[in-house]
Amino acid sequence: VEITVLDKNDSPPSFASAPLHYTVSEEFGPGQTVSTIRAEDPDTIGQLEYKILGGDDGKFGLDSDSGVLKLTDSLDRETKDVYRLSVRCSDGQQYTDTVVTIEVSDSNDNPPVFLEQAYSFDIPENAMRGFRVGQIQAADADLGANAQLTFTVISDWANDVFSLNPQTGVFTLTSKLDYEEVQHYILVVQAQDSGIHPLSSTLTVYCNVLDLNDNSPIFDPMSYSNDVFENITIGSEIVTVSATDLDSGENGKIAYNITGGDPNNDFRIAQNGTITTIRHLDRETISLYNLIVTATDQAMEPQKRLYSTVQVTVIVKDVNDMAPEFVTPNETAVIENIAKNSMVMAIKAIDKDEGRNGYIEYSLSQNPVFSLGSVDGVLRVSGPIDRELRNNYTVMVTARDRGEPPKSANMSLLVRILDENDNSPIFDPKQYSATVAENASIGAMVLR
């Protein structure tokens, strides 16, 4: 008896080899075959069908019948270098999934790119041979030899002045510089990779020779002076100083500062050298300023900056802004019956102004007993004084300067009258009488 066992679709397909890993050059174009994916099914019924479930990013296509995997779009390793495709093989009822790894290999499709569009290096003119001028840098998105760069100077000018390291891109100085002869060098530099078909890029390098800061600023003239009234408004211009520097660039640019002679910070100086007031001036506090103005160049290294100084004399002229002030006591005493024209006291007032503004004249309110010297301020007796009639006097003293307009001050002066023994005792009444008993005891009061 022969028994034929009929097949049943009870086994899933299996991929011929796993894991599936392929390498594709980024030079491959759409339509090129990557590989053929094969699977086996022990069943005899059912037809195998292949399809991509995901991970292809639209770059790959898989023939459902043959399993041929092809490119549908160009690849770029610099954008994405590995793809992991999820692939399924199905016999209609059973299926098996696997991951297909596709690694994108590099091709020399990217030229070197400099990190800057142009390089500019500043070199002091006193730099010695071997001085490190600067470094140029470039990058290549490729890999391996395709990204290994070599730098060369392709311009002919100044090859004897500068040396370029082909691997590091570092420029060094090989000759002495002279700013007065050449201020700028312009070099053309090439960066080239080491691929089989090398790619390159060029850029311009500017080497600027910096002037040596060997000249100090010079003031012209060598000193300045000006007279101002003490009541000038804040912000008034006093004087403008000027200095020049024979150097160039920042070495010849001058900054002005007031470095002395201004203890209260009454002035400031602008960058054009103009000195102005920033506070109210007071001649009575400071009548003369000897400002020290410093002109400093603006060399890049502060410790190498050069400077010079000049003296600016500012004389503050007086205005009548101070009233007289009394410095003598506002109380005194005089003995009665003192002789006429006798001195009682010298009244003194001071005025901090000068000239006519500080010249003081004295005056006294109308008084029949005292007089006051207008110039010397001496208070004298001009009439009889009797303490028994009046024991004090209050007089008003005025001190006035000769300014235009004048200023004045008043002082109330109390003059006390001291007693003198100029009155004899007077009995009242002038006659007394009493009667005493003959038998009055000793000590008995007779009369008051």
TrEMBL record:
It is found in: Cell membrane. Keywords: Calcium, Cell adhesion, Disulfide bond, EGF-like domain, Glycoprotein, Membrane, Repeat, Signal, Transmembrane, Transmembrane helix. It comes from the Eukaryota. Its main location: membrane. GO terms for biological process: animal organ development; cell differentiation; developmental growth; establishment of planar polarity; establishment or maintenance of cell polarity; homophilic cell adhesion via plasma membrane adhesion molecules; intracellular protein localization; system development. One of its GO terms (cellular component) is plasma membrane. InterPro entries: Cadherin-like_dom (IPR002126), Cadherin-like_sf (IPR015919), Cadherin_CS (IPR020894). It is a single-pass type I membrane protein. The keyword rRNA processing does not apply. GO terms for molecular function: calcium ion binding. Residues 16-114, 115-219, 220-326, 326-427 form the Cadherin domain. Pfam families: Cadherin. PANTHER family: FAT ATYPICAL CADHERIN-RELATED, PROTOCADHERIN FAT 4. This is Cadherin domain-containing protein.
